[in-house]
Write a structure and sequence with these properties.
Blueprint: E1 6-8, H1 11-23, E2 28-33, H2 39-48, E3 54-59, H3 79-89, E4 93-95, H4 99-102, H5 121-124, H6 128-143, E5 146-151, H7 155-167, E6 172-177, H8 197-203, H9 205-218, H10 224-236, E7 241-248, E8 266-274, E9 277-285
Parallel strand pairs: 1-4, 2-3, 2-5, 3-4, 5-6
Antiparallel strand pairs: 7-8, 8-9
Length: 297
C-alpha cells in the first residue's frame, strides 16, 4: 500500500529536510501545483521519480497570479483528495504553505521576466507572469537545488520559468512534459470542472482545430495563415469569446506574420472562453503529437 505523503507547511522545515537528503546523496525533484489534481498533474509526479530520488509536490493557490475578477476565490481546493491521489503516484513530501507564510505583510519583492511575457496570455492577464515568476522563484529558493517538472499545456509559463531560471543562475533543472489529454483530446485542466455538459461538448472544438492544423502541416503546408485557418474556424464556431489564436516561434514566442512560412516547427497557442471558463491550449507543429492522436495518453 502506498504511503500518504508527509505534509509540511513551514518553509524552513522542508528546506532542512531537503538539505539533509541532499547531504546523503539523495536527489530532489519538485512538482509545483495549485492543487485540484487531475491525471495531468499525476503524470508529472510520476515522471518526477525519473529525475529525483525524493519527489516533493507543492500545493499552493497563488493569489499574485490571479487578476481582478479572476477565479482565485472559486479555484477548487481539496487537500485531502489531492493527498489520496499523490500517494500512489510516488510523492514523498507535500509542501502546502499558507498565503501568509508565502507573502508576509512586509513582502515587497516581485520578479519580472521581460520579452516573452508580452504576448499571448501576458497581453490579456497583466501582472500574471510576475506572480508566476515570483512564486516559482520562492519555491525554488525554499526547496533548494533540484529538478522541477512543468506541463507544456502552460507553454508560455514554461518558457518564462526556463528563462528566469537561466537568467538568475538558479540551480534547478527544468523539465517540460507533454500535455495530458482527455479521450476526446481536450487538455486536462482543473478549470474543466467549471464547464457544464453542453460547454464541455463545445470545448472539443479546441483540440479538433489544433488537430486539423497538424494534418495540413504533415501534408507539407507551410503558410502560417493556412495553418491557422482551421483552428480559427473551429474555435469561432464553438467558443463564446477568443482572447487570442496565435502562431509564434516555439523558443522566443515571437509572433509570426500571417504571410510568413512556418519553419521546421511552429507553435500555435490559444486562449478562449466557453461560458465563464477560460481555457488555454497549444501545440507545436513538427514536434508534438496531434491532440487527437493516441487520445487519453
Amino acid at each position: 500500500m502506498s504511503r500518504t505523503p508527509t505534509i509540511i507547511r513551514d518553509p524552513q522545515e522542508i528546506r532542512s529536510l531537503c538539505d539533509d537528503e541532499r547531504a546523503r546523496g539523495t536527489s530532489v525533484c519538485l512538482v509545483p501545483t495549485m492543487g485540484a489534481l487531475h491525471e495531468g498533474h499525476l503524470d508529472l509526479v510520476r515522471e518526477a521519480g525519473n529525475h529525483g530520488d525524493l519527489v516533493v509536490v507543492s500545493i499552493f493557490v497563488n493569489p499574485t497570479q490571479f487578476g481582478p475578477g479572476e477565479d482565485f476565490d472559486l479555484y477548487p481546493r481539496n487537500l485531502a483528495d489531492d493527498l489520496d491521489k499523490l500517494a500512489p503516484a510516488g510523492a514523498a513530501l507535500v509542501f502546502a504553505p499558507s498565503v501568509e507564510t508565502m507573502y508576509p505583510p512586509n513582502a515587497g519583492t516581485t520578479i519580472s521576466v521581460n520579452g516573452i511575457t508580452e504576448g499571448l496570455c501576458g497581453a490579456h492577464r497583466p501582472g500574471h507572469f510576475d506572480g508566476v515568476a515570483t512564486i516559482v522563484a520562492k519555491l525554488f529558493n525554499i526547496i533548494g537545488p533540484c529538478a522541477a517538472i512543468f506541463g507544456r499545456k502552460d507553454y508560455q509559463q514554461l518558457q518564462v520559468i526556463r528563462k528566469m531560471t537561466h537568467d538568475l543562475n538558479m540551480p534547478v533543472k527544468i523539465v517540460g512534459m507533454a500535455t495530458v489529454r482527455e479521450p476526446d483530446g481536450l487538455a486536462m485542466s482543473s478549470r474543466n470542472e467549471y464547464l457544464s455538459n453542453e460547454e464541455r461538448s463545445r470545448a472539443t472544438a479546441i483540440p479538433s482545430g489544433l488537430a486539423a492544423a497538424h494534418v495540413l502541416f504533415d501534408r507539407g503546408e507551410k503558410s502560417v495563415k493556412a495553418l491557422l485557418a482551421p483552428v480559427v474556424s473551429s474555435i469561432e464556431g464553438a467558443c463564446d469569446s477568443i482572447d487570442y489564436i496565435s502562431a509564434v516561434d516555439p523558443a522566443s514566442l515571437a509572433p509570426l506574420d500571417d504571410e510568413a512560412l512556418a519553419g521546421e516547427t511552429m507553435l500555435i497557442a490559444l486562449a478562449a472562453r466557453i461560458g465563464g471558463t477560460r481555457l488555454i491550449d497549444n501545440t507545436v507543429l513538427g514536434e508534438d503529437r496531434s491532440p487527437l492522436a493516441n487520445p487519453g495518453g
